[in-house]
Amino acid sequence: MAKGGHRYPLIVYTHMINRWWPAISAIGVAFLGVAWLVRWWGFEEWRWLALASIGGINIFLGILLFIVRKSAYVQPFKDYLKLATPFLRVNISYKRFLRTSSANFGTLFPPNSVSKWQAEIIQPIAKMTAIVLQLRSHPMPQSTLRLFLSPLFFKDKTPNFVIVVDDWMRLSSEMQGMQTGTGPTSAPKKKRDSSILSRLPRNE
């Protein structure tokens, strides 16, 4: 098996799950509380069992989301960039790359172009730098990708991926090293310089 580089958690995915799992768990606890009251009041057994079941399922889903919230990542390999979530694994060949650039995440999704709930997700991470991978084509049908990935992974309907990680310059540098065969290279963490991205090989 080819040795990959570092794994970079996908901030958008993690941020979304961190918003969902507490709410889903709280709903589950609320249903369990109502189920206990229904039983205490002496209603039919099936009523409180149904409520308790709904509550248990929600709590289970909340715990599951908490466990997987950081399991989505990208990882550079020699010939491709791996994008992984708990329900999707896709390898993006560097040969598909047309252009790689950086952009402020918030500018890619202006408030008037997204729904209210998407805007609420974007707002806390709007100032982060995103890597935009413009591709010749997606490695699988875009309709399939959109079933498993948030719309915030695509800036428009053209073949592309919007990648937001904590250290975008290190990821860019590591992709460059993988493609050139020099291995992972170091990148300054504080300097906001898109020159690394411009040096990524463009396979025309």
Question: What this model shows, in words?
Answer:
The protein has seven helices and seven strands. Helix content is 44%, strand content 18%. It has a domain of 106 residues. The C terminus is likely disordered. Strand 2 and strand 3 form a beta hairpin. With 204 residues, it is α+β, with helices and mostly antiparallel strands. Helix 1 packs antiparallel against helix 2.
* Number of DSSP helical runs: 7
Helical fraction: 40-55%
Give the helices and strands as they follow along the chain.
EHHEEEEHHEHEHH
Residue fraction in strands: 15-25%
> Averaged pLDDT, please?
83
Number of strands: 7
Structural class: alpha+beta
Shape descriptor reads elongated
List its salient traits.
alpha+beta; elongated; 204 residues; four-stranded antiparallel sheet; three-stranded antiparallel sheet
Task: Break the fold down into its secondary structure elements and pairings.
Layout: E1 8-9, H1 11-40, H2 45-68, E2 73-76, E3 80-85, E4 88-93, E5 97-104, H3 105-108, H4 116-122, E6 129-135, H5 142-148, E7 160-163, H6 168-180, H7 195-198
Antiparallel strand pairs: 1-2, 2-3, 3-4, 5-6, 6-7
Helix pairs in contact: 1-2
Write a short abstract of this structure:
By secondary structure, the protein is α+β, with helices and mostly antiparallel strands.
